[in-house]
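Hi support team,

I submitted a single chain yesterday and got back a structure, but I'm not sure I'm reading the token output correctly. Could someone confirm the output below corresponds to the sequence I sent? I've pasted both exactly as they appear in my results page.

Thanks,
R.
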Amino acid sequence: MRTLFLSGDPTALHLAPSEDLPNVWAVAVEMWAGAKLRGVASLIAIAEGSVSLYTSTGGGTIGGGQHKSVREAGHQLLITAEGCLGSLGVHESLALPPEGQIGFIILTYGGKLGATVDEAEIQAGGHPLSPLYSAAQDVILQLRVVSAG
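Hi R., thanks for writing in. Yes, this is the structure output for that exact sequence:
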């Protein structure tokens, strides 16, 4: 699923630049998911409203965007990504981030941008991509709320 996402085409999803999302059409935030999972969780939000959380060991949550709170948090993640584009570089790698790192992949109408940042640095809040990480955590929180309900 991750490879399919990363090779996606916004026109196939009928996406085009909009006023609030002139550049970004999708975001992936990838992080190690703890001792139990021992793998990477990939949070994906797409401008048409899809929000999913996949794990490298199999499983995850697909279709979170059907819930209003998750869809809104996903949209906010995309908007936050718009504001972080200057802190990203061209990104063509399909590699998962190493343990202790957070990977950001932003799909724009002009190509893929991304960065890999030390998890402790991003969590401390002073990194330029910390707002993007925080927005991703908000999406994960909303996914947990709807799955618990």
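A quick pointer for reading it: The chain has a mean pLDDT of 89. Let us know if anything else looks off.

Best,
Support desk
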